[in-house]
Design a protein that fits this description.
It is a single chain. The chain has 349 residues and is of the alpha/beta class. The chain has two domains: 196 residues, Potassium Channel Kv1.1, Chain A, CATH 3.30.710; 130 residues, no CATH class. Strands 1-3-2-4 form a four-stranded mixed beta sheet. A two-stranded antiparallel ribbon has the order 5-6. Strand 7 and strand 8 form a beta hairpin. The C terminus is likely disordered. This is BTB domain-containing protein. It comes from Thelonectria olida. InterPro entries: SKP1/BTB/POZ_sf (IPR011333).
Length: 349
């Protein structure tokens, strides 16, 4: 890796005519919102208490203008962000960037030496700077090599569990136009979201996170609406089963939902409930079975037991006994809720 200069000046081009001063270097980066009292909190990224120092970079205006749209417009525009006299170097300022990341970016823009190995934290910081200074084209070759090296350490797959690491990968994939990784991560985390996904201040398109939140609310709301409908059916006096049958089903349903923190039923926007959770809970609801006394002609002699049949679907529509209905064609790829099975069981598909 590149290492900061202890003298606080990096002479990328010893004969350069541009001095870039980095103020407040190494500011907290992509901080994951979490409870500070949680001992198992996620990695927040490095932070500094003393950010009073400044770091300078001696740079070439030609290399900057050639490789960065931002610097091209700045150095060739009608105005210049300068201080000092006209005969001195052009002075520019930057704030909050990570010093090592900015050093690597400037070395790439000046065709200087760059590290062969990379880690996610540093690459995400580099991507943020690259996106700001609009110098993507200079990095694709290096990024391909870095991603290959990083993937070799991760069994060839980016992280798919919703968290800071996944969002850093999403950010890197977006900035450097790796659509494959971006889609894979986005598709994975969308079912895990329990509310709006934090952007962490990264330039990830808000529309993608907004779409995920909208999809989550619709999905969870649709499933809970079906749950509420079946509960109303079981509570009512005009349901298609006996008092005993509906009471057992209703009690089992409420108890199971309570066990998973879903009773009373959550209200929109269903904070804390992911698409994964609602599907797993409804697909795993217990199926109560019970038996009643069986006495032909109400004769106590020869009394035995029989398993109670409860074969109906969608509340009011009976199904063929001992046959579990197949999901409709439109819903084959989505877990379904609310079909009843046989022998006193509720099928939560």
């Amino acid at each position: 890796m590149s290492h900061p200069d202890p003298n606080n000046i990096h002479k990328i081009d010893p004969e350069g005519e541009v001095v870039l001063t980095l103020k407040n270097p190494n500011a907290p980066f992509a901080v994951w919102p979490t409870d500070e009292s949680d001992p198992a909190r996620q990695l927040l990224g490095p932070s500094r208490v003393d950010n009073t120092k400044e770091v300078q970079f001696l740079l070439s205006s030609k290399h900057l203008a050639l490789n960065s749209k931002y610097f091209y417009k700045l150095l060739n525009g009608p105005w210049k962000e300068t201080c000092g006299n006209e005969e001195g170097p052009l002075r520019l300022t930057a704030e909050d960037w990570d010093e090592e990341a900015l050093l690597i970016v400037m070395r790439v823009l000046h065709a200087s030496r760059v590290p062969r190995e990379m880690n996610l934290e540093l690459l995400a910081k580099i991507a943020l700077i690259v996106d700001y200074y609009e110098c993507h084209d200079s990095f694709f070759f290096h990024v391909d090599a870095w991603l290959s090296q990083m993937m070799s350490q991760m069994n060839g797959r980016p992280p798919t569990e919703l968290g800071r690491a996944a969002l850093l990968w999403l950010h890197v994939s977006w900035v450097f136009k790796n659509n494959s990784y971006y889609s894979e991560i986005l598709n994975s985390i969308q079912t895990q979201a329990t509310g709006p996904i934090p952007s962490l201040g990264l330039p990830i398109p808000e529309r993608d996170f907004d779409s995920i939140e909208e999809l989550r609310i619709q999905h969870v709301g649709r499933k809970l609406s079906k749950v509420q409908g079946d509960m109303d059916l079981l509570i009512g006096d005009n349901g298609p089963c006996t008092f005993e049958c509906s009471s057992i089903h209703l009690g089992s349903l409420i108890k199971d939902l309570s066990r998973h923190g879903l009773y009373p039923l959550p209200k929109a926007p269903y904070s804390g409930v992911s698409m994964n959770k609602i599907d797993v809970v409804l697909n795993g609801l217990l199926k109560p079975q019970w038996a009643t006394l069986r006495s032909p002609n109400n004769d106590m002699r020869g009394m035995g037991f029989r398993v109670v049949d409860c074969a109906y679907r969608d509340g009011y529509h009976p199904t063929t006994a001992n046959v579990r209905p197949a999901p409709s064609t439109e819903m084959q790829n989505e877990p379904q809720y609310g079909a009843y099975g046989t022998t006193g069981q509720l099928w939560w598909q």
